[in-house]
């Protein structure tokens, strides 16, 4: 089995400092936590940016600062968000891709997102995929629902995405696919031979989905974007969430990938 790639979604767009004091907001806080999770076994950080008020932003200059500060501290793979927050325009969302990070997320369909709608039209998805290709950025397909798997593959057939394919099954968002073992087994069998996948279980689904992915040969995403609790009633830090996955994986006999090993697996040069 491949070594385990642990991605940490450090901050996200929706969680606020009022929800948890452990949320990193400023570029310095984000970079500091990127280093912390790197030191305990994470190989990718999934990044969102916040403005001075703590609101979600896709501002290129804030991403530039975050990326520079992380790179000063550690060699972790940086994956920027192109999802941003619900309601942002295409032009806002795509901004960080021009900074040529190693990876970026690419959601391949529209989905209900709680009471809101996370819009991703076919033309916008193609545009984002092309910009990633032109900037040498490896996309991670964000799969919130099963139809998005076929939409992602259509991008490959039509030449918008080339090279290694990597999927993130986002499971348990209200309005999207449920975080059940049966669902994870199903979606993990729907992707092409040779592709890799990770799973982001939302809320209390984070731990069981992570554990299942470790056993199935998938990879794992944890972090405060998806889940702020260590267990019922106890807030987590990003570092604790990574440490737990590392412990479980090692107990089961699966080693943890370094960033360079993750680069090899994901064929990032
Ligand atoms: N904030 C969500 C609406 C991504 O980062 O690419 C979208 C999201 C996905 O977080
Ligand atoms: Zn995100």
TrEMBL record:
* Gene3D superfamilies (UniProt xref): Aldolase class I
- The protein's superkingdom reads Bacteria
Which InterPro entries does the UniProt entry name for this protein?
Aldolase_TIM, BKACE
Question: Molecular function terms in GO for this entry?
Answer: 3-keto-5-aminohexanoate cleavage activity; metal ion binding
TM regions (residue ranges)? none
Q: Which UniProt keywords apply?
A: Metal-binding, Transferase, Zinc
Note whether Nucleus occurs among the keywords. Answer: no
Q: Which Pfam families match?
A: BKACE (PF05853)
Q: Does the keyword Transferase apply?
A: yes
- Which cofactor is recorded for it? Zn(2+)
Which protein is depicted?
3-keto-5-aminohexanoate cleavage enzyme
Species annotation: Baia soyae
